[in-house]
Write a sequence for this structure.
């Protein structure tokens, strides 16, 4: 498979604290990867850096051949990021918000309408963002992340707070996005929901990658039972509380 | 919870929200008062009438802002819906809101009284006359406008549910089903009250410099003070019954009103500006829509500035300096505030923007374009006309150029800070 995103030696400092420590991995087009780890492991920081929201202290991030350091604008055009909490223009309607993001990525309003329809949000398309419930905001954030010609979707806890219908629609949309050739990297603590769709599992702890299971390894792992991923996580990560 | 307890909590929250002693409203009042006094003192070297007009212009601007802020002290507050949910009686809710209004009014009154201090060097009586008008307007801001605003809110919040109103509507053959309450009352009634108070001030222009006014000063000042006290006594009596509903319904109504945001296409001017901006057109169009919805006051105050400048241009007063200075300086101060607001949520989401293929330079250019467009239409164009219509063009144009420069610098610095 073709490499869509590459993270090479990514290091991010917050003052003296090292949030991400020489992290390296690649994502292939069409791959849905799960990023797991305890609170404070550096998952959100990694996702934000891959989206261009945080400048890396060192290391290289490439998306679809575009290097964030040398061609940030071209790279951003190919990345969709659902932040936590979702950053929404409160005084825009849902359609306006997603339409603005679509236009920024070179797509049109029809693309925004299409992704809203896929996620079951057409009925609230003309409601102001500031009126939305937690779950609705998550879904609008997801729609904004997926709209346009993206090749990498980064989702930070985006599946949290969705009702069963919304969760199903979100998974179907993510699967369709992956089938279109985009890579998806999502962090979550909802292992059950994510296990049902992932091709790969990355586990981070203290800013480093401590496990990377893919392909048949993941299938074998999931075949071991409903709590296999949780067991793997617990075996790798010591319970030290927030770091 | 008693009024005293709620006021204590409210004061604690305000103290916590403050960045430091230098942002205390009384420190700001003293600084603003000093600035007005300096301006008045400078104009006093021309003539006492010019100094008095200067003071009146500054006082009208200061109290207009104070009047506009009253609904925000009463019910357009972030904590309105939370307070409405708590088991707090309407009386304490109203008292806490009224204390906020009184404190804000005290600060404005203090600033304008300090501003009148230079008159004391010439005549204690003239200084006292200016101070008396400031005190009367202060009473209006502390009591009269809050009473009117509370009454308007109670009409909006309770009117549609009132059986008597429904019966009257039915008898008149009007709609049987309740219509959404008109939130226009929330701005219209306090606006009307503010207009009455400011008109009263203008009636005393001659009296302030020792002349004989059209209406005796005692009647004007006494009416303002009397109406303020009577209005607040009357509204306090009904506050226990209505204040909880006001907080709940007006904050809900605010959301409802925003739920049907006016989706208007960009104006011709906005489209033309966007056309010139290239890469910045998209963030500009976004900013235009968001500012229109979030800060409609920018257009109301802009229209007010425009109107004042047109009146000055047409009427060509003997001493246009105070009016032009107050309008240019007031508009520039608001423009500088807007330059900061354009950089903050809900207009700009830096975290989201940093992940989109829009350069920081394009975002900054879009905001500068909005600010310059607003300033040009509402202030610069009518300002130039007003200035060239006066006998002494130079100082007015210089002042306008200075204010324009300040707004542009604020816009540039706002963009560079990100």
């Amino acid at each position: 498979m073709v490499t869509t995103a590459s993270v090479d030696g990514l290091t991010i400092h917050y003052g003296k604290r090292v949030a991400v420590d020489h992290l390296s991995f690649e994502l292939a087009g069409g791959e849905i990867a799960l990023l797991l780890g305890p609170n404070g492991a550096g998952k959100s920081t990694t996702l934000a850096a891959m989206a261009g929201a945080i400048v890396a202290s060192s290391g290289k991030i490439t998306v679809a051949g575009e290097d964030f350091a040398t061609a940030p604008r071209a790279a951003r055009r190919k990345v969709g990021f659902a932040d936590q909490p979702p950053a929404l223009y409160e005084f825009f309607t849902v359609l306006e918000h997603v339409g603005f993001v679509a236009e920024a990525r070179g797509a049109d309003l029809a693309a925004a309408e299409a992704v809203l329809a896929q996620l079951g949000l057409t009925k609230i398309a003309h409601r102001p963002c500031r009126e939305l419930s937690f779950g609705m905001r998550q879904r609008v954030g997801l729609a904004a992340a997926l709209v346009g010609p993206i090749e990498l979707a980064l989702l930070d806890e985006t599946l949290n707070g969705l009702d069963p219908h919304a969760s199903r629609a979100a998974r179907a949309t993510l699967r369709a996005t992956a089938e279109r050739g985009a890579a998806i990297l999502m962090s979550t603590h909802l292992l059950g929901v994510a296990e049902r769709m992932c091709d790969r599992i990355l586990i981070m702890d203290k800013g480093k990658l401590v496990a990377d299971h893919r392909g048949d390894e993941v299938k074998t792992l999931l075949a071991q039972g409903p709590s296999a991923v949780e067991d793997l996580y617990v075996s790798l990560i010591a319970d030290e509380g927030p770091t | 919870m008693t009024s005293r307890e709620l006021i204590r909590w409210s004061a604690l929250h305000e103290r916590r929200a403050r960045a430091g002693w230098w942002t205390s409203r009384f420190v700001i009042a003293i600084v603003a008062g000093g600035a007005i006094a300096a301006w008045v003192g400078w104009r006093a070297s021309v003539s006492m009438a010019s100094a008095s007009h200067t003071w009146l212009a500054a006082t009208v601007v200061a109290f207009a802002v104070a009047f506009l802020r009253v609904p925000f002290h009463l019910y357009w507050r972030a904590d309105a819906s939370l307070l409405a949910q708590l088991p707090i009686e309407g009386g304490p809710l109203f008292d806490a809101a009224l204390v906020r209004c009184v404190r804000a009014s005290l600060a404005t009154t203090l600033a304008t009284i300090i501003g009148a201090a230079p008159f004391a060097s010439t005549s204690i009586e003239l200084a006292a006359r200016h101070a008396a008008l400031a005190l009367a307007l202060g009473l209006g801001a502390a009591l009269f406008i809050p009473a009117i605003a509370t009454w308007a809110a109670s009409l909006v919040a309770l009117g549609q549910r009132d059986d008597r109103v429904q019966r009257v509507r039915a008898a008149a053959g009007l709609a049987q089903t309740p219509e959404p309450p008109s939130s226009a009352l929330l701005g219209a009634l306090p606006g009307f009250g503010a207009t009455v108070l400011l008109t009263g001030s203008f009636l005393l222009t001659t009296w302030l410099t020792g002349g004989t006014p059209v209406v005796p000063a005692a009647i004007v000042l006494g009416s303002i003070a009397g109406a303020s006290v009577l209005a607040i006594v009357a509204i306090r009596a009904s506050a226990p019954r209505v204040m909880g509903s006001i907080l709940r319904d007006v904050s809900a109504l605010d959301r409802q009103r925003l739920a049907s945001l006016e989706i208007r296409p960009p104006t011709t001017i906005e489209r033309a500006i966007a056309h010139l901006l290239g890469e910045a057109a998209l963030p500009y169009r976004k900013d235009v829509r968001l500012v229109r919805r979030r800060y409609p006051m920018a257009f109301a105050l802009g229209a007010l500035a425009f109107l004042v400048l047109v009146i000055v241009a047409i009427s060509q007063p003997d001493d246009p300096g105070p009016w032009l200075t107050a309008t240019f300086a007031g508009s520039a101060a608001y423009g500088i505030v807007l330059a900061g607001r354009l950089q903050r949520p809900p207009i700009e989401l830096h975290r989201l923007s940093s992940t989109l293929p829009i350069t920081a330079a394009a975002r900054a250019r879009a905001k500068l374009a909005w600010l310059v467009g607003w300033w040009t239409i509402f202030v610069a164009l009518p300002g130039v006309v007003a200035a060239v219509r006066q006998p002494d063009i130079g100082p007015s144009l210089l002042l306008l150029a200075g204010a324009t420069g300040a707004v542009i610098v604020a816009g540039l610095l706002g963009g560079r800070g990100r």
Observations:
- Residues 381 and 410 of chain B are 20 Å apart (CA to CA).
- Residues 3-259 of chain B form one domain.
